[in-house]
Design a protein that fits this description.
Layout: H1 2-23, E1 42-46, E2 53-57, E3 82-83, E4 87-91, E5 98-102, E6 122-130, E7 133-138, E8 144-148, E9 172-173, E10 177-181, E11 188-192, H2 213-244
Parallel strand pairs: 6-11
Antiparallel strand pairs: 1-2, 3-4, 4-5, 6-7, 7-8, 9-10, 10-11
Amino acid sequence: MKKILAFILAVTFVMSSASVLASAEHTHKPGNYPDLLKTEYTHSYICKYCSEVVTEYHDIDENGECDCGYFEHEHQATTYPIYTDTVHSFTCTVCKLTINENHILDENNECVCGYVDHEHVARIYSVINFDGYHTYICKYCGATITEKHEMDENGICACGYGAHTHTPDAYGFISDGHMYWCTECYSEVVELHTFDENGKCECGYVDPDQADFFVKMFQPLTMMFSLFRFFISSYTLGFKIGWEMGFGK
């Protein structure tokens, strides 16, 4: 019994000592440099002594190389799958890293990635009247643009806001607000709830502070049903919107 106890104490001492040594100050040393943890400017590795994930800037030597395997070179691209108004991304065919760069426009306001500097133009507006904004997809570049309404002298925005009272097809609502598709202009409208004196919004949602016990109990189910109706409305009116945008032509 004494031998067993002594053995347990010895093992405990060794483990405790190893833990102290591991936590002591040391110079981090990599086991390897995983490719997934490399970027254009940094590399990361797991220290072989303390298992800490260490991220460092590349340390380029006189030959233009880093210990992690990265080397200075001009990044090469065959395709540019992602670009926005300001940047594009591609996978370098040399180092296999994902590179993000700002557009460089030529004399024709074009970038090699395919982006063309232009004024965004809406084919059809999507979300209208959410805190004074509207959203649309640019028909030239496909970017999703969110802007504040700009009213003309008649109080009407180019998106159609102010031109007519939107007619809901079917409300879908959550606790914060509701959304619907307008049956006249095919716009998706997102609004905050507006409660009457009884605490009820026109979408059907009831203010929990004014709802009775049964309404509170069944409101989550009512909410799910409203979202299902909104989904069906989106599916059916989506065909009409798609046709207007030219997808069916």
